[in-house]
Design goal:
It is built from three helices and 31 strands. A hairpin with a 2-residue loop joins strand 28 and strand 29. The protein has two domains: 218 residues, Pectate Lyase C-like (3 Solenoid); 144 residues, no CATH class. The chain has a 20-stranded mixed β-sheet that branches. The protein is mainly beta and 396 residues long. The structure holds 2-acetamido-2-deoxy-beta-D-glucopyranose (5 copies). The site of one 2-acetamido-2-deoxy-beta-D-glucopyranose has 5 residues, from strand 22 and strand 24.
Length: 396
Amino acid sequence: MGSIISMFFLLFSCINIEVQGQNNIFNVLNFGAKADGKSDDSKAFYGAWIKACNSNGTSAVWIPKGTYMLNPVTFNGPCKGPINFQMEGILTAPSEKSSLFLDCWIGFKHIDQLEMNGGGSLDGQGPLAWPYNRCSGKVEHCIPLTTSVKFAYMTRSRISNITSINSKGFHMSLFECSDVMIINVKVQAPDNSPNTDGIHMAKSKYIQIFDSEIATGDDCISIGDGSRTINVTNIKCGPGHGISIGSLGKAPNEDIVDGITVTKCNLTSTKNGVRIKTWSNPSYPNTVSNLTFDHIYVNNVANPIIIDQNYCPNMHCKQGFSRVRISGVAYRNIWGTTSTQVAVNLQCSQANPCENIELRDINLVYHGLPATSSCSNVYGEAYGIQKPPSCIRRLL
Ligand SMILES: *[C@@H]1O[C@H](CO)[C@@H](O)[C@H](O)[C@H]1NC(C)=O
Ligand SMILES: *[C@@H]1O[C@H](CO)[C@@H](O)[C@H](O)[C@H]1NC(C)=O
Ligand SMILES: *[C@@H]1O[C@H](CO)[C@@H](O)[C@H](O)[C@H]1NC(C)=O
Ligand SMILES: *[C@@H]1O[C@H](CO)[C@@H](O)[C@H](O)[C@H]1NC(C)=O
Ligand SMILES: *[C@@H]1O[C@H](CO)[C@@H](O)[C@H](O)[C@H]1NC(C)=O
């Protein structure tokens, strides 16, 4: 009798879960998506999103395999429960001129517990847009090309198992996010695509980026002001400009950068390995502290270890003494080959020297020859293997 009752309960609860699950999955095809790669499916996606967002409990927006053309769309929260954005299809961006200079193509905002997954991809249609890029290094003010996907004011979310191809501007960006994990994503764009940063973040904390492959035309990962407690682990980068903190100091009232760990990365044929970059003049005060770069393999990288506090790419800035203060940066187990002779290049501010810089077990080779290092205003300690010989000074 007991077993019959429990069987009944088991059956009943299974049915219940099944029905509830079905109720909360919103297939975009049921909201009018054509999936023909031409018709605008953004209204159908938005319709499915509204339903999911207003459902109690966990719900899903399901994008089955197929190609969907989407005009710019933003998925807003807050929602009534966690949402799974199950993206199995290919989403393609519009290529009209009106879509070139937007904040983003696809936005997710004010959502707690978003899970984006599914093996699908985002195609930003970049090649048609790149000729219109105005943000070359020499321009002082410019409107950047559209970011493919932007996450703003997100909490406790996870983005995994998706690919971003040929974004117009940045591939992905995080703004004011907390506790977001990006894992197993792929980013692909040619090395000559302009300003196509892979993953950019600003004013965000507790961000983890793991197990991802980024090949693009600009920084693989760029970490802007207000980034705190960031963990970047097991990233393959290249082509691209490497992993970059900054630029910092350009705007007044920037937030500090603190607690960044970058480990187990492989950078191949990139412009930089790990870089910290701050504006020289004008430069507003800020601080960068507690950074660790550990187990970084570089393969034919131009600037494996670089701090550039003299950043002044246009005619309106001047050489000067950056007011950004950098302290507590550890470079550990950095090895491989460099494509320029100066493998360790630490150019710090004369007004705010870099302090507490650690170099530990550095082994970099330049075309089979010894590499060199160059330092200005750098204080700290070197330990273990130092190839090239360290040029940082001890603070007496
Ligand atoms: C959703 O949950 C709220 C609060 O618990 C409740 O008032 C509402 O009736 C529920 N809606 C549905 C459709 O179940
Ligand atoms: C990625 O998504 C596809 C499609 O849903 C799935 O089959 C696959 O297992 C996922 N991979 C991972 C690593 O989650
Ligand atoms: C970063 O994440 C990796 C992978 O989960 C973990 O092993 C490591 O301890 C983390 N590091 C920090 C400083 O949190
Ligand atoms: C430095 O940053 C790491 C990782 O982000 C964090 O775990 C640690 O507590 C920080 N240390 C200090 C002294 O702030
Ligand atoms: C780094 O990546 C390159 C290019 O994919 C690969 O050939 C190489 O084996 C990798 N090296 C390490 C140490 O992971």
